[in-house]
Every structure is written in C-alpha cells, then in structure tokens.
C-alpha cells in the first residue's frame, strides 16, 4: 500500500521521464523539478499528518527545532494550531537536515539521504538561483542519463519514506488516506 502522496510523486516522476530531450534548458528544468517533487511529497505528508493528528502537533512543539519558540499571549489566545501549521508550511523542504530532524522528532521517521541526493539538491539550487551556473561560474550540463538516474534515486528515497509513513500512520488509522 502506498499513500496518495507517493502515487502522485511517482506519476510526476514518470511524466518527467517522458519529457527528457536534447534541449539543455528543458533538461535543467526537468532536473530541478525532480527535487521539487521530493519537497512536495515531504511537505504534503508532514502538513497533512499534523493537521489531522493533535498528538503530532504536540510532539512538534517539543522538537528540537521548535521547543524554544516563543509565542505571544495574543497568539496563544488565537488559533495556535493555525499559527503552528503556517510555520510548518513556510519551511524549506529541500533542506533535508532540518526536515529529517522534524521527521525524526515528530513522526519517528528517518529520511535516509546521502551525498548523491545532497549533490542533486545543490545542482537544483544552481539551476534555480543561478540559471544553471555553479558559484565558480561553470555551466551545469544535465544529460538525459543524469535525469533518468536522479529520477530513480529520488523515487527510491520517496518510496522508502512512504513505506514507513504508511506503516506508522495510515495502517493504524491515525491519519487520513
């Protein structure tokens, strides 16, 4: 069994694989979108679980990232759940060091990323923020094989995370499917 978030991510990755071309600019955009699919998956899973499970929201407040967060009296008397969710929605889900920590603290799930995944995120950053140039000025070249390999790596990562998410939250009826 897979979550709807995994199914959507897999469909998006499959779509990207059908659009690979010899156009270097298009390939850069496709490559960057692979990482965006991971970000979207992590975001949607995390926010959906928090929105629908108050116990997870309480765990979030004790996580190392948020346990020292200060709240004004005005905010405490307002919709604090809404405020917490807005903070969570504003995170950078490609920053795997931060997101892994939240997933571990709140969901009890480790995101098993490696240097290959971090390098892909760095390349995406160069594509998005420097139009495909590295900090040293070198142009990034994305081959068709780079895209195919990156799709495989990110699909496997998402599948691994999703397996734990489904086992912990969807099979036990703790969250919405």
The low-confidence parts are none
Structural class: mainly alpha
Percent range of helical residues: 55-70%
Content of β-strand: under 5%
Arithmetic mean of pLDDT: 89
Overall tally of structural domains: 1
Give the biggest beta sheet: none
Please give the count of helices: 8
> Could you state the order of secondary-structure elements as H and E?
HHHHHHHH
Using only C-alpha atoms, the radius of gyration works out to: 18 Å
Number of strands: 0
Overview of this protein structure:
The protein is mostly helical and about 180 residues long. It has one domain. It contains 8 helices and no strands. Helix 2 packs across helix 7 and helix 2 packs parallel to helix 8. It starts with a helix and ends in a 7-residue tail after the last helix.
Key traits:
single chain; 177 residues; mainly alpha; 8 helices; globular
Map the helices and strands.
Layout: H1 4-19, H2 24-51, H3 54-61, H4 73-77, H5 80-89, H6 96-107, H7 115-130, H8 144-170
Helix pairs in contact: 1-2, 1-8, 2-5, 2-7, 2-8, 3-6
Short description:
By secondary structure, the chain is mainly α. It contains eight helices and no strands.
